[in-house]
């Protein structure tokens, strides 16, 4: 395989392989094949641990989903490109995208959606990986999670799932825009369409929830309720714009009623950023009748959710948001610019920095709720 007269070879590198569910990841030497048509091989410079990675590791019990290299929130540098790639060249700084943007399908052409017919939500949603892969380890094929797999020193991706960014952007910061911050911020700005002077409630103060708080403030909300059962998260929520911090455990009544009493009937906008179906209903019930909008942001696919029809008949709207509603190939570079222009925060999300070989420690921190984002770098 050639690139401008240069032969491309298999790269051997370190990666954190999940051989089976509910077990620690193992640092292995893997083989990363050269990029094929319309693909790009990337050197990962920084990657963060997102709760969605843990969701697959601890909740996906399908054997078809393993072995796999997890990771999808990252930034890196283009190492080589395959035939047909014209948008990228070696040396470009890029952010992998778990939601592609082919630019050709009916979803990409519709401004109302950030879905794409090439995305994982349209196929293999239970395993979150395609059967094909550019990874092998010990003679076995290793799947690529969300077609990204950034818990590796190198990965190969389709060019439609890659965003070229400002060459001056610090990769160990903007990597967060690959998922969590983009998701929460966009859920408030793009999906909820938070209005100036409004009241908002954000349920769950992980990275996605804190980004949603930041999005509410960015959109001009006058009162932002940050809700979590871990009061240690409240000071950080205030940094991102929360005006009121509420712990449901402090009350002997449903938190939806508490918020109704604090806001004369409920908030204008609520965002569920946990992935808990009971909290999704609570977030809906926390909205004011008539015009309240509640957005489901937290990812889960293992339980049904429910509400009483009258709760919607009364005028509330219930919506979902995938990656913050951003058409990511367009939106992520814009968010990078907003960070460079000091219009959005990123540094404040990072609580720990480690090397890739400490991946299991990073996962433990997230499982115990002791971090917001841990950024991993190659050794």
TrEMBL record:
<dbReference type="InterPro" id="IPR013154">
    <property type="entry name" value="ADH-like_N"/>
</dbReference>
<comment type="similarity">
    <text>Belongs to the zinc-containing alcohol dehydrogenase family.</text>
</comment>
<keyword id="KW-0479">Metal-binding</keyword>
<keyword id="KW-0560">Oxidoreductase</keyword>
<dbReference type="Pfam" id="PF00107">
    <property type="entry name" value="ADH_zinc_N"/>
</dbReference>
<dbReference type="InterPro" id="IPR036291">
    <property type="entry name" value="NAD(P)-bd_dom_sf"/>
</dbReference>
<dbReference type="InterPro" id="IPR011032">
    <property type="entry name" value="GroES-like_sf"/>
</dbReference>
<dbReference type="Pfam" id="PF08240">
    <property type="entry name" value="ADH_N"/>
</dbReference>
<dbReference type="InterPro" id="IPR002328">
    <property type="entry name" value="ADH_Zn_CS"/>
</dbReference>
<feature type="domain" description="Alcohol dehydrogenase-like C-terminal">
    <location>
        <begin position="207"/>
        <end position="329"/>
    </location>
</feature>
<dbReference type="InterPro" id="IPR013149">
    <property type="entry name" value="ADH-like_C"/>
</dbReference>
<keyword id="KW-0862">Zinc</keyword>
<dbReference type="GO" id="GO:0051903">
    <property type="term" value="F:S-(hydroxymethyl)glutathione dehydrogenase [NAD(P)+] activity"/>
</dbReference>
<dbReference type="GO" id="GO:0005829">
    <property type="term" value="C:cytosol"/>
</dbReference>
<feature type="domain" description="Alcohol dehydrogenase-like N-terminal">
    <location>
        <begin position="37"/>
        <end position="165"/>
    </location>
</feature>
<dbReference type="GO" id="GO:0046294">
    <property type="term" value="P:formaldehyde catabolic process"/>
</dbReference>
<dbReference type="GO" id="GO:0008270">
    <property type="term" value="F:zinc ion binding"/>
</dbReference>
<protein>
    <recommendedName>
        <fullName>Enoyl reductase (ER) domain-containing protein</fullName>
    </recommendedName>
</protein>
């Amino acid at each position: 395989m050639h690139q401008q007269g240069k032969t491309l070879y298999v790269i051997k590198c370190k990666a954190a392989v999940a051989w089976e569910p509910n077990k620690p990841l193992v640092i292995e030497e893997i083989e990363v094949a050269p990029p094929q048509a319309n693909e790009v091989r990337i050197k990962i410079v920084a990657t963060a641990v997102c709760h969605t990675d843990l969701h697959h590791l601890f909740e996906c019990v399908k054997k078809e989903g393993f072995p796999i290299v997890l990771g999808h929130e990252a930034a890196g540098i283009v190492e080589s490109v395959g035939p047909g790639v014209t948008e990228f060249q070696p040396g470009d700084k890029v952010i992998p995208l778990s939601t592609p943007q082919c630019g050709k399908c009916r979803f990409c052409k519709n401004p109302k959606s950030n879905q794409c017919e090439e995305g994982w939500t349209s196929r293999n949603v239970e395993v979150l990986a395609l059967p094909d892969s550019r990874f092998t380890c010990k003679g076995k094929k290793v799947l690529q999670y969300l077609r990204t797999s950034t818990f590796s020193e190198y990965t190969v991706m389709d060019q439609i799932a890659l965003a070229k960014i400002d060459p001056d952007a610090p990769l160990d910061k903007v990597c967060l825009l690959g998922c969590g911050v983009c998701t929460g911020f966009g859920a408030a700005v793009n999906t909820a369409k938070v209005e100036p002077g409004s009241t908002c409630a954000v349920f769950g103060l992980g990275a996605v929830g804190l980004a949603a708080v930041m999005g509410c403030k960015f959109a001009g909300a006058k009162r932002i309720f940050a809700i979590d059962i871990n009061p240690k998260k409240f000071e950080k929520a205030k940094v991102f714009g929360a005006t009121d911090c509420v712990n449901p455990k402090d009350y002997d009544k449903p938190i939806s009623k508490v918020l109704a009493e604090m806001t004369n009937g409920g908030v204008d906008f609520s965002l569920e950023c946990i992935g808990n179906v009971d909290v999704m209903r609570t977030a809906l019930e926390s909205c004011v009748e008539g015009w309240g909008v509640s957005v489901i942001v937290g990812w889960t696919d293992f339980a049904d959710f429910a509400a009483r029809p009258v709760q919607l008949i009364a005028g509330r709207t219930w919506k979902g948001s995938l990656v913050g509603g951003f058409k990511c190939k367009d939106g992520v570079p814009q968010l990078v610019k907003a960070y460079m222009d000091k219009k959005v925060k990123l540094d404040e999300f990072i609580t720990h920095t480690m090397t890739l070989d400490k991946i299991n420690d990073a996962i433990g921190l997230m499982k115990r709720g002791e971090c917001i984002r841990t950024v991993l770098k190659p050794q």
